[in-house]
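Weekly puzzle thread! Below is a chain. First person to post its structure in token form gets bragging rights.
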Amino acid sequence: MTRRAFLEQAQPMSGRSPRFAPELLRRRVDPELPGLEARLAAYRRQAFASHIHDAWCVGLVLSGATRMRQGAAARRVGAGEAALIEPGVPHSCNPEPDGRLSYVMFFLDRQALASTAGEEGDPVFRAPVVRDSLLSRRLVTLYRALGAPGGRLSKETLLCRALGPLLGGRAAPEPRSDAGAAALVRDYLRQHPRENTSLAALAALAGRSPAYLLRLFKRRYGLPPHAYQNHLRVERAKALLVLRP
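Winning reply:
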């Protein structure tokens, strides 16, 4: 099936204007693959400011192109390419001017990754952007399998084949450099999103002055610590709303 046919089949009937930013066309989960959510979406104008997810994200561009900003880096991601974003990394993806972007985004928590990467430690992606026609077809096949009839083993095999090649190993411990100091603060905020912590306490944890920590953290993750914490709180609240019956 071509990408155009895939999109035409997936799009619901709608009387809305063709200019929307954004419209969620499909959301899929599967009881056989807990911890995995997929979304098919398309839009024409800028919709997202810099934000974070508390999940591993794999976004396959089906048509159009996006300028992905990930931390301080900016990359163009076109049709057939997959953008890979690890938890807590500030990013934004918007269509190019006068273009239409369509994509499938997979959100995976540790439970979903366990069958692919094992149980110990946090996996890391091998590159921020990957272009591989076979992997693209596997990601589309995985999306179409979600919610469809099929056994757990079969679906876990699809998940492993689609995502396994994208993972490059385990995050190695960082030395107590500036990068390591910023990572300590990031990890603390991720583990204590509701805590009313102080800048002084975070600076002490990092072993840096408060002013230096602010500059360091924003340079490393694209957001100051308080904005990063707010994003974490929003993501946790959204997750609780999804779980609410």
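Puzzle host: Confirmed. Bonus trivia for everyone else. Confidence is low (pLDDT under 50) at residues 5-21, 171-175.
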